[in-house]
Amino acid sequence: MPLVEARSLTKRFGDLTAVDAIDFDVAQGESFGFLGPNGAGKTSAMRMIGAVSPVTDGYLRVLGMDPATEGPEIRRRLGVVPQEDTLDTELSVAENLLIYGRYFDLPRPLIRERIAELLDFTELAERRDDKVEPLSGGMKRRLTIARALINQPELLILDEPTTGLDPQARHVLWDRLYRLKQQGVTLIITTHYMDEAEQLCDRLVIMDKAKIVAEGSPRQLIEEHSSREVVEMRFPVGVQETIVDRLDGLAKRTEVLPDRVLLYTDDGDDSSTGVHERGLHPETLVVRRSTLEDVFLRLTGRTLVD
Amino acid sequence: MAVPTVARVIEAHALVYRRTWRGSVISTFFSPVLYLVAMGIGLGSLVDQGAGRADLGGLTYLAFLAPGLLVATAMQTGAGDGSWPVMAGIKWTKTYHATLATPVGVRDLVIGHLGWVAVRLTFVSVVFVAIMVAFGAVESWAGMAAVVPAVLTGLAFAAATSAYAAYLDTDTGLSTLFRFGIVPMFLFSGTFFPVSQLPDWLEPLANLVPLWHGVELARGLALGTGTTWSPWIHTAYLAAWIVGGTAVAFRTFGGKLRQ
Ligand SMILES: Nc1ncnc2c1ncn2[C@@H]1O[C@H](COP(=O)(O)OP(=O)(O)OP(=O)(O)O)[C@@H](O)[C@H]1O
Ligand SMILES: [Mg+2]
Questions:
Q1: Min Cα–Cα distance to chain B from A103, Å
Q2: What does the pLDDT look like over B96-113, one tens digit per residue?
Q3: Does the residue A140 lie in any domain?
Q4: Is A195 exposed, middle or buried (CB count within 10 Å of its CB: 0-12, 13-18, 19+)?
Q5: How does DSSP assign A140-209, residue by residue?
């Protein structure tokens, strides 16, 4: 039985449809992603799974239960890292965890044990008795993750866990999430970073404008919707528009963005040689692997992060 | 809704309070004492010598004022605890959202919050009555019973203001509520002078204010005098505000937190 099962899952706010009849299953132990740009409906979907936002239409089961009638039971077994920090900044690190543990009705001695473990796990042990207020963004995020783990959830929902963090803080977080997955925790992660999705997700759906536009493993998605390699070129301002015709036949597909031109090809070196042979002189030219960003561009005609 | 879950919410409030109580001490204890001294003793010495004494039924002004001030203080505590902390939980620190991601439900959250306010009101009112006794403003320790209407009045305001605060999108509505609602009530609901002194057309309006009912009850209990209406009517009126406010709060909290 899937841990989360959604059929035609829909969320409307008045006239606005935030989630439009999406279908997906999340299996036990997997790490499942929702990749999509701002406003795609990721948070709205997460909040329905987290049994805090009522389903407008469609079918949803979380841990085999119906969020409409068994919300408290579902939430008892979930961990949630919301998009925005919701820590009590007036309290200390440990107190935030204590209060949260009590909401799950855990006995205090058990909570104290778990606080020690979780602060070690998130490398916050030294800040145990410090107020939350002055902690860095990365520390607050880690504390939020520790808080979400206080009830040893079977399913951990993370809504943009690393947005706003510097690269180093992101890598620390990724490492922790990877360890959780190793311990058998099922993860649902939303992100608008394609590298995050590629790093963390076994399987993902790409969301755009309230709908799922593709589903699969990062590799499958790239194989299905993009080429093996991409030649990425920048031309001087004004020149770019004029050279498009001269790129004909160099690649399987050409994509002209406001600031760069992309050639989708199976052999990047071959294509870039072709560019030079036609007497074109881009300011920069890079050959790289295809990424989920390219998949998104292909499917929606837009870039992921604008 | 579940009893243990409500208890967990109250416990969380207590834990937060342990960290933040210092800020509330001045408003809770210091200002009422200042009022008692300035108005009850200072102004009272003038009132007691003049013709006013007859209108107060032969009481000293201090004895008249103290129970009123007790309930008015409870009203302010209740209204205050029902306002900005709710706004913060929903909009600023967003801790209510975190709470509701656990087995705690909206109703548990509302009742737990009001339960905690009740604890605080009891504490504040007991201390206030003790100060009244120290000032000789209450005849006997039996006057302690005035704590009950004080707590009920505070809760009536806490329930109503939290329902309102959850409904608001910004806190300007809260400043308006205090400036044009709570402060006039504080001044004109029988705390500082009997409502019979108000212009005739205003008196029925004062009768609608929960504070007036609380003051009537508290004064009756502290001084052993009667109340204007049956004490049961006064009590029922306060209870109606508590129940009604709580019911509306379920809806407004739900509207903001369970979209
Ligand atoms: N409570 C709400 N009331 C009205 N509209 C809402 C509400 N929450 C979300 N929306 C709208 O629903 C749409 C989807 O929003 P949502 O927050 O789910 O997107 P998202 O994919 O999480 O975006 P982001 O990457 O910016 O977090 C948006 O148009 C948003 O404005
Ligand atoms: Mg979001």
A1: 6
A2: 999 999 999 999 999 999
A3: yes
A4: middle
A5: HHHHHHHHHTTT--SEEEEESTTTT--HHHHHHHHHHHHHHHHTT-EEEEEES-HHHHHHH-SEEEEEET
CB-ligand 1 contact for A305 (6 Å cutoff):
no
- A297 belongs to a structural domain: no
| B257 pLDDT higher than 60 | yes
Q: Hey, are the CB atoms on A75 and B102 less than 8 Å from each other? A: yes
Q: What is the dihedral of CA B106, B111, B112, B118, to 10 degrees?
A: 160
For residue A82, which ligand has an atom nearest its CA? 2
Q: Which tens digits make up the pLDDT trace of A66-111?
A: 999 999 999 999 999 999 999 999 999 999 999 999 999 999 999 9
pLDDT tens for residues A83-92? 999 999 999 9
Is A203 in contact with A216 (CB distance < 8 Å)? Answer: yes
Q: Can you give the CATH number for the domain in which A138 is found?
A: 3.40.50.300
Residue of chain B whose alpha carbon sits nearest to that of A99: B12
The answer on A253 and A119 residing in a single domain is no
Q: Which of A161, A183, A216 is the last residue of a domain?
A: A216
Domain membership flag for residue A112 = yes
Tell me which amino acid residue B68 is: G
- A233 in Cβ contact with A282 (< 8 Å): yes
Dihedral (CA of B16, B20, B25, B31) sign: negative
Question: Do A16 and A106 belong together in one domain?
Answer: yes
Record the tokens describing residue B94, joined without a space.
């967003």
Strand A57-62 versus strand A78-81 pairing type: unpaired
From the CA of B231, how many Å to the nearest CA of chain A?
39
Q: Which domain holds residue A125?
A: 4-216
Last residue of a domain, one of A154, A186, A216: A216
Task: Tell me: do A71 and A185 sit in the same domain.
Answer: yes
DSSP state of B170: S
pLDDT digits (tens, 9 = 90+) for A116-133: 999 999 999 999 999 999
pLDDT of residue B1: 64
Give me A166's structure tokens: 């510097």
Instruction: List the CATH number of the domain containing A266.
Output: 3.30.70.980
Are residues A181 and A162 part of one domain?
Answer: yes
In terms of pTM, does the model score above 0.90? yes
Looking at the structure, do residues A181 and A276 belong to the same domain, yes or no? Answer: no
Please answer whether residues A53 and A47 qualify as being in contact, where contact means their C-beta atoms are separated by less than 8 angstroms. yes
Model confidence pLDDT, tens digit, residues A120-171: 999 999 999 999 999 999 999 999 999 999 999 999 999 999 988 889 989 9
Residues 6+ apart with CB under 8 A from B121: B74, B77, B78, B150, B151, B154, B155, B158
**Cβ separation of A50 and B11 shorter than 8 Å?**
no
Q: Which residues pair with A288 in a beta bridge?
A: A230
